[in-house]
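user: can you give me the structure for this one chain? tokens are fine.
assistant: on it. calling the predictor now.
[tool input]
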Amino acid sequence: MPMFATQPRRRFLQTLLQSCTAGALLPQLSTLFAEEPGQSTRSIPPVPGKLSVALRKRGKETDAPATTEQTEWNASETAIIICDMWADHPCKLAAQRVDRMAPRMNQVVSKARDQGVAIIHAPSGGIQLYEDTPFRQRIKKARPSKPPVPIQNWCYLNPEKEPPLPVDDTVQRSTESTLRGCDDPIADYKKNTDRHEHPAIKIVGYDVISANGQEIFNFLEQEQRKNIVIMGVHTNMCVLGRPFGIRQMRYLDKNIVLCRDLTDALYDPRDRPYVSHARGTEMIIEHIERHWCPSILGKDLTKVIPGSNNPDS
């Protein structure tokens, strides 16, 4: 009986390729044992469905108006990163705004998950609280990938790509903490705060938990997620600077966007430019749209184009 009648097809072809010395045959043979249907390395099923996304962007000039461009993303190539939506925060007004935002965020994330979007929870400083959960184990087992550029622990303001932020978030009003930008009238920075993710945001299914830039990059590569949406807090600090934040994702050449209606800044109206907290957050979003990436609305992630999620015929 011939050898290939008793060997699995893939093993036979691999053996044949290794023993083949004719270079001209290598490209043709290598395609014969490419990844087959049902043998994907992904952990999340790559289901059909296209999101219609309205990208808002701005020219770099200060007075350049916003423009919107409609585009389509495969849900199976899209991921959401939820940044630092803690159960509590040393700045109590910031914590109150997270309380207000978290239920809306959960609604968006829940509907996006149903469409096949990957969900990454990143409550920095609280990851150890989830170490024994399947959500941590899943991302730690993601296939290692080498990033095209180093992943930094923190990505600071880059003067080669952006001017200073439009708000002053450098004022420290307590000698007891390095916290800046808090708009509490009198802040108590001494209390430890709960770094679990806010309980209104559910962690379920194929979700993963990490604040490690390399772990998150491994997962994105394994799951073939090139469209990355970041939401959470704080827009002028962690959303920009974390090792999974906007600056780092741009350095990694990911298609990163900010979800502008599910974010908040850490800005105090007592500081320059002396505008309301809401306007301060808007000004930082505008800075990001000019110098780093477009923004979208959460609703764009909740449904797919009708018919695009049907099986291929």
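assistant: here you go. The longest strand covers residues 255-264. Residues 52 and 72 are 5 Å apart (CA to CA).
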